[in-house]
Write a structure and sequence with these properties.
269 residues; alpha+beta; 21% helix
Length: 269
C-alpha cells in the first residue's frame, strides 16, 4: 500500500538528490539482521538453489572463495524471509519519499563477501536494469559491519546527475565483475562505512563499488534490493516479475540487454 505520510525530512530528500545517496542508520533492529543472516547462511548450507545460486565444492572452487560463496540472485523468489524484507513497509515509505511516487520491487541479492574475496569494480546499477524513463534506486542493507578492511561500499557523488558511462574492463585480480567505470575528472570516491542494520539508499546512475575483503576472519554480508518508480515504462527482462510492495505482479515493457552482465540479448519469448 502506498504510504500516506512522509518518513524522510525535506533535508534528507534533498541530500539524496544532491549526493545520489542517503544512509539511514539502524533501520533494521539487531534481531532482524540476525534473522536475515541465519536465513541466508542456512540457505547456503543447504546447497545450490536453481535460479538463485550455485556454490561449488572446495575442490571445484580451486582456491576461489567466491565460488564457495557466490552471490544469491533473487532470493525473494525462493524464500519468504527475503521476500518479506524486499517488501518491507519501512523501505516502502522511504522509497516513496525518494521517488515521489509508488515504488515497485525489481530485484533482491545477497552478497556473502567472505574473507579474501575480491571486490566489485566501480559501476552503475542502471547499466544492468535499464530502467526507462528514470532510473532505479537500491536499498543496500548491511548485515555485518562494512568498513574499509572488509570491502565496504564506495560511492562517487555527482555521477548520478549524468547519463550512463561506457564501462572499461575491470582488473580481474581485484574485481569479480568485468565492468569498470573510471572516476570522472573532478569527482572523488567517498567510502561509506555501515553498521549492521544501516541501510544505504542510492540512485541507479550513481557510480559505486567496493574493494576486496582483506580481513582473515570477517564476512561483509549484505542484502541488496532494487526498486523502480511506478511511472517507469520499461526495463531489462532479466528482473521480471516486478512486484508492487504488497506483492502483486506488474507488467513493464522490455528493454533489450541488461541482466547480470549488462549485455544479455533478449530472445524470442
Amino acid at each position: 500500500m502506498l504510504a500516506q505520510t512522509r518518513t524522510l525530512s525535506p533535508e534528507q530528500v534533498h541530500a539524496f538528490h544532491d549526493d545520489g545517496y542517503l544512509v539511514i542508520r539502524g533501520l533494521l533492529a539487531p534481531q532482524e539482521t540476525k534473522h536475515l543472516l541465519d536465513t541466508f547462511m542456512a540457505m547456503h548450507a543447504g546447497g545450490p538453489i536453481s535460479g538463485c545460486f550455485s556454490p561449488k565444492s572446495l575442490e571445484a572452487a580451486d582456491g576461489d572463495i567466491l565460488k564457495l560463496y557466490p552471490r544469491m540472485m533473487h532470493p525473494h523468489r525462493v524464500n519468504a524471509v527475503a521476500l518479506r524484507y524486499l517488501l518491507d513497509d519501512r523501505i516502502e515509505r522511504i522509497l516513496t519519499d525518494l521517488f515521489a511516487e509508488e515504488p515497485l520491487a525489481a530485484q533482491s541479492m545477497l552478497y556473502f563477501k567472505p574473507p579474501g574475496a575480491r571486490g566489485q569494480a566501480l559501476h552503475q546499477d542502471n547499466f544492468y536494469l535499464k530502467v526507462e524513463p528514470g532510473t532505479c534506486i537500491a536499498a543496500w542493507m548491511a548485515l555485518d559491519p562494512a568498513d574499509r578492511a572488509n570491502g565496504g561500499l564506495e560511492v562517487v557523488p555527482g555521477t548520478h546527475q549524468g547519463e550512463l558511462f561506457c564501462p572499461k574492463e575491470a582488473d580481474a585480480e581485484v574485481s569479480f565483475t568485468r565492468d569498470f567505470v573510471p572516476v570522472p575528472e573532478g569527482l572523488e570516491v567517498v567510502p561509506i562505512d555501515l553498521a549492521p542494520g544501516d541501510v544505504l539508499f542510492f540512485n541507479g546512475q550513481l557510480v559505486h563499488g567496493s574493494q576486496p575483503n582483506t580481513t582473515a576472519d570477517r564476512f561483509r554480508r549484505s542484502f541488496i534490493c532494487h526498486y523502480v518508480g511506478r511511472s517507469s515504462e520499461r526495463m531489462s527482462m532479466w528482473y521480471r516479475p516486478i512486484l508492487t510492495m504488497d506483492g502483486r505482479e506488474v507488467q513493464l515493457a522490455e528493454n533489450e540487454g541488461g541482466g547480470p552482465c549488462g549485455t544479455e540479448v533478449v530472445g524470442p519469448h
